[in-house]
């Protein structure tokens, strides 16, 4: 499909992005590992946010009433 063919380029090229038309042998595994790491980091941030969230002087919101079992895990408390 369109765009023309590949043009001649130098044989020995190095760049952080991989050079022209780079297809590393283990790109699928590297992508999988990076995706799992990102999902784990986002999940941890979300979970810690659930634990530390709260409202002062107001009635409880749904997340505070439905996630009551998360309060059993102790984390360092902020200055509240």
Fill in the keyword field for this structure.
about 80 residues; mainly alpha; about 0% strand
List the helices and strands and how they pair.
Elements: H1 27-52, H2 62-66
Keywords: Membrane, Transmembrane, Transmembrane helix
Transmembrane segments: 32-51
Number of strands: 0
Number of discrete helical segments: 2
Radius of gyration: 24 Å
Strand content: under 5%
Give the mean pLDDT: 75
N-to-C SSE string, H for helix and E for strand:
HH
Fraction of helical residues: 25-40%
Anisotropy-based shape? rod-shaped
CA-to-CA gap between the ends? Answer: 61 Å
Structural class: mainly alpha
Low-confidence stretches: none
Query: Biggest β-sheet: count, sense, barrel?
Result: none
Transmembrane segments: 32-51
Keywords: Membrane, Transmembrane, Transmembrane helix
